[in-house]
Amino acid sequence: MDVLFAGLGSMGMGMALSCLKAGHGVQGSDPDPARLDTLIRQGGQPVAAGGPAADALVCVVLNADQTRAALFGPQGLAGRLAPGGVIVACATVAPDFAREMEAEATARGLLYLDAPISGGAAKAAAGALSIMASGQPAAFAAAAPLLQAMAETVHHLGDQAGPGSAMKAVNQLLAGLHIMAMGEALALATAQGLDLARVQQVIGVSAGNSWMFQNRAPHVIAGDYAPRSAIDIWPKDLGIVAAMAQDAGLPLLLVETALAEYRAASAAGLGRLDDAVITRHIAARAGLALPDGGQD
Questions:
Q1: For 13-62, how does the pLDDT look when each residue is reduced to its tens digit (9 = 90+)?
Q2: Residue whose C-alpha is closest to residue 277's, from 238, 211, 221, 220
Q3: What is residue 293's predicted lDDT score, i.e. its pLDDT?
Q4: For the chain, which residues make up each domain, given as ranges?
Q5: Kind of pairing, strands 2-6 and 151-156?
Q6: Is the pLDDT of residue 160 over 90?
Q7: Catalytic residue set
Q8: SS3 category, 164
Q9: Which CATH homologous superfamily contains domain 2-160?
Q10: Distance (Å, rounded) from C-alpha 21 to C-alpha 228?
């Protein structure tokens, strides 16, 4: 397939390279020229004006506003798709927004797959993501070769846009809370004089373990907060969760607390650092010293 990629960040780049490895023709677009250069060195191409129409568009940007612009804005790439082409939209957005984008795509004679992703940059590079997808059967069929290249598991969640984004919100609720819980646990362990590497070993084979604990705790232990997944993602994603819950009349007290903490960490200047730095934000209130890897 000939596929356009909007967004070549840590996730989008891995997905684009996975498609290249599977034999698809990939053209990419990203505000950062260095990312585009990386794609070109691996055999991809920049999106070229006046080129032939593409079969698919994979949109891996940050939020709803960027999704709308990347698809249907003045420089939007949806206009570069052939009739009946498929949009695979991967940003974490509200279900209502996904349904709005599907309606816009349909009006333009295009297919739309609501396809949020999970798994992190390493799994994106390995073509082993979990994709929470919903859309018309024709959209699944059109996107199937790309999904096979990018994902280890594709969850079919419905025959219209919306359920995919709803499921991603449930996932982000858990993931955001698990990172907060990791931060509080490591701060408490520090207060008690425990060796954090030993804490990770013990918790890793105990009931308190979680995927996020095992993935993020090493960042804290190394004092390495180079961003893999930044703090600033969580005010957005948990903000979506909180809005959905409010619409449903559903109080989510843990979400409200975590959302306030992530917002405070961002306001304190930590927003662009790895989200494991929430531990430092928590520990600082008690003057606790965490490992310092010499990085921010």
A1: 999 999 999 999 999 999 999 999 999 999 999 998 777 899 999 999 99
A2: 220
A3: 76
A4: 2-160, 165-286
A5: unpaired
A6: yes
A7: 168
A8: helix
A9: NAD(P)-binding Rossmann-like Domain (3.40.50.720)
A10: 23
Partners of 81 in the β-ladder: 54
Please name the residue ranges forming H helices in the chain.
10-21, 33-41, 64-72, 95-107, 120-125, 137-150, 163-191, 196-204, 211-222, 233-247, 253-265, 278-283
Written as one letter, the residue type at 287 is G
Contacts of 102 (CB under 8 A, 6+ apart): 112, 114, 135, 160, 161
Measured CA to CA, the distance from residue 168 to residue 151 in angstroms comes to: 15
Class of domain 165-286: mainly alpha
| Per-residue model confidence as pLDDT tens digits over 129-143 | 999 999 999 999 999
Q: Which residue has the tokens 């960040």?
A: 9
State the burial class of residue 192 (Cβ atoms within 10 Å of its Cβ: 0-12, 13-18, 19+).
exposed
Amino acid at 124: A
* Type of residue numbered 44: G
Is the per-residue pLDDT at 295 higher than 60?
A: no
- Residue 226 sits at φ, ψ, to 5 deg, of -60, 130
Of the candidates 166, 164, 172, 168, the residue with the CA atom closest to the CA atom of residue 258: 172
pLDDT of residue 294 exceeding 70, the answer is no
- The token pair at 209 is 């373990």
- At residue 12's C-alpha, the angle toward residues 240 and 272, to 5°, is 60
